[in-house]
Specification:
Strand content: 25-35%
Shape: globular
Number of helices: 8
CATH class of the largest domain: Alpha Beta
CATH topology of the largest domain: FAD/NAD(P)-binding domain
Structural class: alpha/beta
CATH superfamily of the largest domain: FAD/NAD(P)-binding domain
Number of domains: 2
Order of helices and strands: EEHEEHEEHEHEEHEEEEEHEEEEEHEEEH
Helix content: 25-40%
């Protein structure tokens, strides 16, 4: 069969691309190996672009649009009776130790400067709160030196959202195939399909959404897809308190976080192990790091049981920005990867954009900084 598009990789990005294609009536097939350790299955699911502390304005603009898109998509899916695992819960950015006061002050200045510039969120939605107020919101917290509360922040269960996208896409004609794409089919500087499990599939367009494994096509294409796996270990704690579903997420300044879920579950993490390779396993050092940071910020979690440890291999790009768009020099070939630790926040929007490109559309202005051709300049 000749397809309009073949999607390679079925994590959150590939599932979003497939869902958009199917909803547009395109003939599409999703080929997925379901690799152990893919990032979607282990991600924390933090959606809080308003408290982004980095200096990339391109990332900030894109993440704000991505947040709006995933909320709209979740609303659409929920209206159709599909559970997405998306919910607003709020988020706290906190300083605990004296060494965090300087980065906290810089973050506070940046966050509220952007708030003034955009005119949103409102002052009641994004504001500083006292240590006592923060502990009322997230009871296990210790004494704080500073706290910023964003009531608009949301969380998403990556596994559940991916399955929701697949389900809707399949209902609209998407074909799902489990297997490995050995190579792309190319002719006259254009992609014509793929070979998967030894079988040829023809298509007018192909989207590579292989996460940390996307670089596997670089050699055949003769282009640079500079992503590598960054291992992240995240621990799910079990508490007797079943009110956790109403707690906000928490992040301090050691690149770790806490994400509460209903039923007494709190996910704490995560390590950022660049250079760990394709090895999705736990380590003693990683577990110690995650638990140590969690208890530094929230000593009230000390009595929690360890319910589960998940390990994900994030696709980390060389310049720490996503790669989204047409592959230079190969007509009909597109890529969406390199989201690092922000895959669940940026992935659905990135998947939609590449699906639109595969159908002949244009990328939105905010995606311009992430074009793959930046590595050829």
């Amino acid at each position: 069969m000749n397809y309009d598009c073949i999607i390679v990789g079925g994590g959150i990005v590939g599932a979003a691309a497939a869902c958009h294609l199917a909803r547009q009536g395109a003939r599409a097939v999703l080929v997925d190996r379901q690799d152990e350790g893919r990032a979607t299955s282990a991600g924390a699911g933090i959606l809080s672009p308003h408290t982004y502390r980095g200096d990339s304005e391109a990332w900030f603009r894109f993440s704000n649009r991505a947040f709006t898109y995933i909320e709209e998509l979740a609303t659409t899916l929920s209206a159709a009776g599909v559970e997405t695992g998306f919910s607003r819960c709020g988020a706290l950015t906190v300083a605990v130790d004296e060494e965090e006061l300087e980065p906290y002050a810089a973050a506070r200045e940046l966050i509220f400067a952007r708030q003034r510039q955009l005119g949103s969120p409102g002052p009641e939605e994004l504001r500083e709160v006292s240590s006592a107020e923060a502990r009322e919101l997230f009871p296990p917290l210790g004494e704080l030196r500073g706290a910023i509360y964003n009531s608009l922040a949301a969380r998403v269960d990556g596994r559940m959202f991916e399955q929701a996208l697949r389900r809707v896409a399949a209902e609209r004609g998407l074909e799902l195939r489990r297997g490995s794409v050995e190579r792309l089919l190319l002719a006259n500087s254009a992609v014509t399909g793929v070979v998967a499990n030894g079988e040829a599939f023809d298509a007018r367009a192909v989207i590579i959404c292989g996460g940390a494994w996307s670089q596997g096509f670089a050699t055949q294409l003769g282009v640079d897809i500079p992503v590598e796996p960054q291992r992240g270990q995240i621990i799910h704690l079990a508490l007797a308190d079943d009110s956790t579903g109403g707690w906000p997420m928490v992040s301090a300044f050691h690149d770790h976080y806490m994400v509460p879920w209903p039923g007494g579950r709190v996910a704490v993490g995560a390590t950022r192990e660049t250079g760990a390779g394709f090895a999705p396993h736990t380590t003693a050092a990683g577990v110690q790091e995650v638990l140590g940071e969690a208890l530094r910020v929230a000593p009230g979690l000390a009595g929690a049981a360890i319910g589960e440890i998940r390990v994900g291999l994030r696709p980390l790009c060389r310049d720490s920005l996503p790669i989204i768009g047409a592959v230079p020099g190969v007509s009909g070939l597109f890529v969406a990867t390199g989201h690092g630790a922000s895959g669940l926040q940026l992935g659905p929007y990135s998947g939609m954009i590449t699906a639109d490109l595969a159908l002949g559309g244009k990328a939105p202005k905010e995606a311009g900084a992430f074009n793959p051709d930046r590595f050829l300049k």
